[in-house]
UniProtKB/TrEMBL annotation:
Residues 13-237 form the DOG1 domain. It comes from Sesamum calycinum. One of its GO terms (molecular function) is sequence-specific DNA binding. GO terms for biological process: DNA-templated transcription. Residues 184-198 have a biased composition (Basic and acidic residues). It holds the Pfam family DOG1. PROSITE patterns: DOG1. Residues 174-198 are annotated as: Disordered. It comes from the Eukaryota. This is Protein DOG1-like 2.
Amino acid sequence: MALMSENGTALDRENFEEFYIRWKEKQNLHPHDLITTATTEPSPSSSLPGLVDRVLSHYKEYYRVNSKCFDILLILSAPWKTALEDAFNWVGGWRPSAAFHLLYSKSGLQLEAKLAELMKGEDMGDLSDLSSAQLSRMDKLQRITIQQEREISEKVAKRQKRVADQEMVELSRDVSEVTQMQGDKSDDSETARAVDSTMKHKEEDFQLVVQSADYLRLTTLKSVVNLLSPIQAVHCN
């Protein structure tokens, strides 16, 4: 299944890899832009929301390309991803619940570093002073996200079992028989078409699951950011 560029032109494997590399390079600039704006501009509170929205739009663009027209096998086993990315891979990308682990880890580190200031009642404006209301809403969101993750993981497990269902076993046997027949002059194109048709259906089925996972990734990211102030969102990046 072909990938599509912004102008609608089909992207092959090499072109998609180039898109991902460019996208990743731009993503790597975001932390610097956010921190610079937060620490150097006179009134960062007025400019940060727009910058945070731009970062979210960047993720949205990736998932737009990733979900509409892509080679599902390419996305699930992208050769350009690092070993670390592969180690934490979940249905073609990062696990949404990891966003909360990252948030709480950074919050704990910042809390420890600024405990003295916080004891004096100073407002840090970062993740060290998350309010009780924010923590409560974050906990609720985390629970919902984990449940949605489980549902998607169950769908993946079911589809993995279907890869070796009776239909595929029978088709595999037919292909093997045709291949092993010595001097066979029969036309096996019908069997090949049946295999291609079955595999295409299964790939499209998997594609729907990956789209659900991508949607959960993006909505989780947006929801977490919406629960934070702009300056807190910068520290969460």
